[in-house]
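Hi everyone,

Forwarding the result from last night's run.
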Amino acid sequence: MFGNWTFGTLVFTVMVITVTAKMALETHFWTWINHLVTWGSILFYFVFSLFYGGILWPFLSSQNMYFVFIQLLSSGSAWFAIILMVVTCLFLDIVKKVFDHQFHPTNIEKAQMYSNTVAFSDEFIALQPLSRARSQLSKLR
């Protein structure tokens, strides 16, 4: 049903979404600029591909990409393949991230977990002198 151009577009779409999602998984601090660039890049890819494939360009000798992206996105099996491949590619990364967070937390994550248990009592680490806070953090290791 689909030709080589459609298959290539499917593979490139999966690659763009997978790489962007992997970058999002590895981002530690989110700002509005991170959100704008990360999710905006996926949106820009879809808008540009729809625009590029939906116009007959008079200066191009061949029109191989005409209507390919629209044809791809109109297929339910293509959407299923995109979602399945992205999830498959990122599955081990997500499992590793969850495993590391649960069983090998960083010092910052330990301090965050400890501060959540201590809450707003007299023992709250952030309100203590630095030497005492360091000694309490060393007990967590």
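Residues 107-140 form one domain.

Cheers,
N.
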